Amino acid sequence: MRHGEVFTRRWVVELILDLVGYTADRDLAALRLVEPACGQGAFLGPIVQRLSQSCRAHRRPLSDAAESLRALDLLEGNVELSRALVRERLTADGWEEAQVDSVTRGWVHQGDYLLAAHRAAEADFVVGNPPYIRLEDVPDGRMAAYRSACSTMGGRADVYVGFYEVGLRSLKPGGKLGFICADRWMRNQYGRRLRQMVTQRYSMDLVLVMHDVDTFQDQVSAYPAITVIRNAAQGPAITADTTREFGQDEARALLRWIADPAQNTLVEEGGVKAARLPHWFPGEDSWPTASPARLAVLEKLSERFRPLEDETTGTRVGIGVATGADKVFITEQADLVEEDRMLPLAMARDTTTGHLNWGGSYLVNPWNAAGALVDLADHPRLRAYLTRHKAALRKRHVAVRQPERWYKTIDKVDPRLNTRAKLLLPDMKQVIHPVLDEGGLYPHHNLYFIVSDVWDLRVLGGLLLSNVAEAFVKAYAVRMRGGTLRFQAQYLRKIRVPDPAEIDVQTSKALADAFERRDVRAATQAALRAYGIADLPE
Fold this sequence. Notes:
This protein is an alpha/beta fold. It has two domains: about 10-240, 3-Layer(aba) Sandwich (Rossmann fold), CATH 3.40.50; about 315-370 and about 415-530, Alpha-Beta Complex (Adenine-n6-DNA-methyltransferase TaqI, Chain A, domain 2). It has helices at about 10-20, 45-55, 75-90, 95-105, 140-150, 160-170, 190-200, 250-260, 290-305, 325-330, 380-390, 390-395, 395-400, 455-465, 465-475, 490, 505-515, 520-530, and strands spanning about 35, 70-75, 110, 125-130, 170-180, 205-210, 225-230, 235-240, 265-270, 270-275, 305, 315-320, 330, 340-345, 360-365, 420-425, 430, 435, 440-445, 445-450, 485, 495. The strands form five sheets. It has a ten-stranded mixed beta sheet, with helices on both faces. Strands 12-20-16-18 form a four-stranded antiparallel beta sheet, covered by helices on one side. α2 (about 45-55) links the parallel β1 (about 35) and β2 (about 70-75). The longest helix has 17 residues, at about 75-90.
């Protein structure tokens, strides 16, 4: 693999061309296709074959297609190989040599797609397999030029992010981009700006995940997916996933299913599962990943129900206190400083059994009831204790920025939180694990908390204990080694919940009872009734 080149198998190219609608029955000479990184012609061969067939079918001379195709590649050697391939295909189709030479020179050029001049709204189609190159592996000068040209290439982006941006910007209204590319940008931080661009201005029409499919001529760990994005307002979307059995015949079956909108249910045929969604997932946050059937259910629930964090119910999701120096601020010595400066602290280990078993930890609390730092002169024991650790505390970033506030914790302590009933959830766990604190403890930063003005927290706890709530987190959350999930606030906020006033008494009791007994199966059955769905697909 040179210069990020990964060459695509012929049947995969044919599938992409079919998905975007670049088919020989159309008058392709009247349309314009751009191939941004043609390599040695994996896409160009089928493209030229279809364009040639279309010209014959529509009784056009080849010269009519002189502006119908534009292909670029950074490497001169690839340009020569691609031109030779184009000449060979056209000559085999019986076109005159003079016409062949003319269109070949006009179609295939050497150039850097990200830095080349492009006409506004020039393309009906942009298709290809953009190069896989981490931006930090690009020479400094070129990297700076890429960042300047492509606003989506933030952080440690891959060059392919820029190919998406430039390709999308070049589409005519209704034009389509079809790429096979790594799908990491749909979830990673470096793809945030591209996700924002897509959801604000374009329609994500299809995502076909092909992680286990033999899509390339060389073996690479690229996590590929085919994406079809249209220059239009977001419409219905198709999500599909494949197994290693997916191949040319299965691709044809998928195309037949896509072509028949009446088949709105999940298709499971020959290594592919697919589902139709009313629209794609909005926003720049990580897009979910799950089976097509589960994504369809989650999308319906997202349309019908409000988020867990909701002003109408006064429900809030937050994280416990970070100190920046736990060895100083956290202790099990109850009389270490003045009694009013010792705040009982809930730790993740206190939640292990599913019921809160306080282990005796305290926060040495430098904050008063008004949310301001206490005056150490009013607390001589606290002053003496913190002064003994002053050198270490001053080294923290938070203290370097505010040296006069050297004894503050990173986070302020909310003086109302420890007295409120709340659900606590450990940050890292293989399954969702809500635990009730009826009041009296303040959460450590390895715990997330949920408070509410309206919810009976045992009923809400039963919903969160269920597989339905966990499915939302699994779809969005980062999965750690060994299958451990991160139950962070941004993922918990993705959970949709019914209006508590609309859950019937029997279902509410079943949820609360399941939560008390830590019965996930019973919680899931009650949650399905509360959400009004029959089951939760795998």
